[in-house]
TrEMBL record:
<dbReference type="InterPro" id="IPR024567">
    <property type="entry name" value="RNase_HII/HIII_dom"/>
</dbReference>
<feature type="binding site">
    <location>
        <position position="21"/>
    </location>
    <ligand>
        <name>a divalent metal cation</name>
    </ligand>
</feature>
<dbReference type="InterPro" id="IPR012337">
    <property type="entry name" value="RNaseH-like_sf"/>
</dbReference>
<feature type="binding site">
    <location>
        <position position="111"/>
    </location>
    <ligand>
        <name>a divalent metal cation</name>
    </ligand>
</feature>
<feature type="binding site">
    <location>
        <position position="22"/>
    </location>
    <ligand>
        <name>a divalent metal cation</name>
    </ligand>
</feature>
<dbReference type="GO" id="GO:0005737">
    <property type="term" value="C:cytoplasm"/>
</dbReference>
<dbReference type="GO" id="GO:0043137">
    <property type="term" value="P:DNA replication, removal of RNA primer"/>
</dbReference>
<comment type="similarity">
    <text>Belongs to the RNase HII family.</text>
</comment>
<dbReference type="GO" id="GO:0032299">
    <property type="term" value="C:ribonuclease H2 complex"/>
</dbReference>
<dbReference type="GO" id="GO:0004523">
    <property type="term" value="F:RNA-DNA hybrid ribonuclease activity"/>
</dbReference>
<keyword id="KW-0479">Metal-binding</keyword>
<feature type="domain" description="RNase H type-2">
    <location>
        <begin position="15"/>
        <end position="201"/>
    </location>
</feature>
<dbReference type="InterPro" id="IPR022898">
    <property type="entry name" value="RNase_HII"/>
</dbReference>
<keyword id="KW-0963">Cytoplasm</keyword>
<dbReference type="GO" id="GO:0046872">
    <property type="term" value="F:metal ion binding"/>
</dbReference>
<dbReference type="InterPro" id="IPR001352">
    <property type="entry name" value="RNase_HII/HIII"/>
</dbReference>
<dbReference type="GO" id="GO:0003723">
    <property type="term" value="F:RNA binding"/>
</dbReference>
Length: 201
């Protein structure tokens, strides 16, 4: 599905509309990335797409475009330790609310994330596939997290982080069973907890 300005139009006639999205919510290792972007009010056709539908190189290219084109943007990486102590949904909501405070928009669109705000809020499923603003945020979040996981791979190459980016692939689960967990693993997530048991035996 190609994004458009329909959700921005639906939320109201505002110039500063903030799109928020996250990446890495279901991963077993690494941070969750939450990003927000406010685009210029002009309703032009943009090349932005849901980051999950694009190849790595294209995502990086478009994320750089977002950074230069956006009126304001912010990216937050919440570490595994915070996810374990607070819970994945709570840390995503907290980071999103911090971005709202930081960027000072007039209205907010999220990918079905119901944040606390006194601003007009549109929280709808698949917003990253239907809104240029949320698609821009998804590109920022995904590329920032991918880069983090590529750098993490250099520290722990035995886990293959550069390939699976911390998600629960067969390769990753097997590495957990063989090598145990790192400080970057989310110990409250079941496959990681099982790997922790292996490493303690």
């Amino acid at each position: 599905m190609t994004p458009s300005w329909s959700l921005e139009t639906q939320i109201g006639d505002f110039k500063l509309i903030l799109g928020i999205d996250e990446a890495g919510r279901g991963a077993l290792a690494g941070p969750v990335a939450v990003a927000g972007a406010i685009l210029p009010a002009e309703r032009v056709v943009l090349p932005y797409r849901d980051s999950k539908t694009l190849k790595f190189e294209r995502r990086v290219e478009l994320a750089e475009h977002v950074k230069s084109y956006a009126v304001r943007y912010a990216i937050k990486l919440v570490p595994a330790a915070d996810i374990d102590s607070t819970g994945i949904l709570k840390v995503v909501i907290r980071a999103s609310e911090e971005i709202i405070q930081e960027l000072q928009p007039e209205a907010v669109i999220t990918d079905y994330l119901k944040v606390k705000t006194g601003l007009p809020l549109l929280a709808v499923p698949k917003a990253d596939a239907n809104s240029y603003t949320v698609a821009a945020a998804s590109l920022l979040a995904k590329t920032a997290r991918d880069q983090y996981m590529i750098e993490l791979h250099e520290k722990h190459p035995e886990y293959g982080f550069a390939g699976h980016k911390g998600y629960g692939t067969q390769e990753h689960v097997q590495a957990l069973q063989k090598h145990g967990v790192t400080p970057e693993h989310r110990k409250t997530f079941a496959p990681v907890a099982q790997g922790l048991l292996f490493s303690e035996n």
